[in-house]
Amino acid sequence: MGQGIKDETIKESNQNEKAVPVTVAYGDGIGPEIMEATLRIIRAGGAKLDLEVITIGETVFKKGITAGIEPSAWDSLRRTKVFLKAPITTPEGGGFKSLNVTVRKTLGLFANVRPCLSYDPFIPTKHPDMDVVIIRENEEDLYGGIEHRQTADVFQCLKLISIPGSERVVRYAFEYARRYNRHKVTCFTKDNIMKLTDGTFHRIFDEVAREYPDIENEHWIVDIGAAKLADSPEQFDVIVMPNLYGDILSDVAAQIAGSVGLAGSSNIGDGIAMFEAIHGSAPRRAGQNLANPSGLLLAAVQMLVYIGQGDVATKVHNAWLRTIEDGIHTYDIFDPAVSSRKVGTKEFADAVIENLGKYPQKLKSVNYPAHGTPLKIQLAKRPVPFKELVGVDVFVDWRGSADELGKRLEEISNPEFQLVMITNRGTKVYPDGIPETFCVDHWRCRFQSSASGQAVTHRNVVDLLGRLVTADIPPIKTEGLFTFDGKPGFSLGQGQ
Ligand code: IPM
Ligand code: MG
Prior knowledge:
The chain is an alpha/beta fold and about 500 residues long. It has two domains: about 5-355, Isopropylmalate Dehydrogenase (3-Layer(aba) Sandwich); about 385-490, Alpha-Beta Plaits, CATH 3.30.70. About 35% of the residues lie in helices and about 20% in strands. The strands form four sheets. Strands 2-1-3-12-11-4-5-10-8-9 form a ten-stranded mixed sheet, sandwiched between helices. Strands 17-16-18-15-19-20 form a six-stranded antiparallel sheet, with helices on one face. Strands 6-7 form a two-stranded antiparallel sheet. A hairpin with a 2-residue loop joins strand 16 (about 415-425) and strand 17. The protein is elongated, with a radius of gyration of 27 Å. It starts with a helix and ends in an 8-residue tail after the last strand.
């Protein structure tokens, strides 16, 4: 038995000594300076990393590669599966996709974890007791980038929310809460309006929450939830939410905690992760040894925890806290009332390195598990529901009145379909519309089976579209109306 214990110890220390392959991108703007500072600090703290440097962002965009990343960089990311990324500049103007979003979605990084806590009294804040972790869904929602101009008047962006996407991030939030001894997970959605998309996120939240009776849970509609977060953040602990709300509210939370410049984040996938500051590349501050490396450093701390070098993470994070406490501050957080020395990026890094081994005296110190493993998420098994086509929403481009359009459509809907309603931007205008409703040139025309509740075929839909084209009412697009195990998978129109 004694032998066994000894082996275990040796294995652990060996594991600790092994350098972990990590892909690094120095980024644009202030990126190279803050990356250099960050790497210097974590190496001095004892991080054992085997770095692969890739070039992404501006340089690559300038070569005409609109994704901002080349195949060799993907190879590195897929090899190391750990990515420390400095901020990137996405060139302005059309044609360039956000590289951040591309990387997150391509690598399946489903959860974006953004701790926002205050460092009172060393960094001024109205919320001295704030300690909130925002866990943001990271792949879907309005970030699909699926947008279309459909008529002269109207543009559309698709909001996609999936059951697995919601479940992965919600489970991650609860697992995170459990591992880091947090007592509550809050969910923000706007499901009083978006009953199917946000409604799904909320429903999955309620479902998963039941599996974690040890952790409190609650849901707020995002508008009032955001107001409460901005007013009394100390009432929140972990907050999980869809992508766009999470983008907006993590900036708000980081800023009211003290500064967006201090927040680091991890983007977590299944066996692969990216770590970055939440702020941008600040090109105007670049190359002047001004920038605050704290956001990237705290992201690197999260990375060290992820790769099982939690002992180093603890050392670096405590040294950083001590430096903040010492009042050694970069220009962005320098305040004569609390700061003792204004320093540049390099000098700030030097100060943190000097504090390695020290603990904060007033701020709460951190203590990560020395050799932890990444959280693993397992999705529930769900039966595939029975799906049936019961009608179709046809969107048409039409300049004229609702009644005129309705009359024309009544004529061509037969024999399989019945025109149930027409809406304009979601508001019912036919039958029985009122003249006050303002209409644009974009109409949603709902056709359902003329034998009520009966299924229709895709062939029926194609025939209907053919009749529309013949009648010179060109369809923009269609949405199938499906039931799932008999339950409608579509919203009813307002006023219906
Ligand atoms: C963030 C950023 C990104 C986002 C941008 C740069 C694409 O704001 O990481 O929060 O919207 O997610
Ligand atoms: Mg953002």
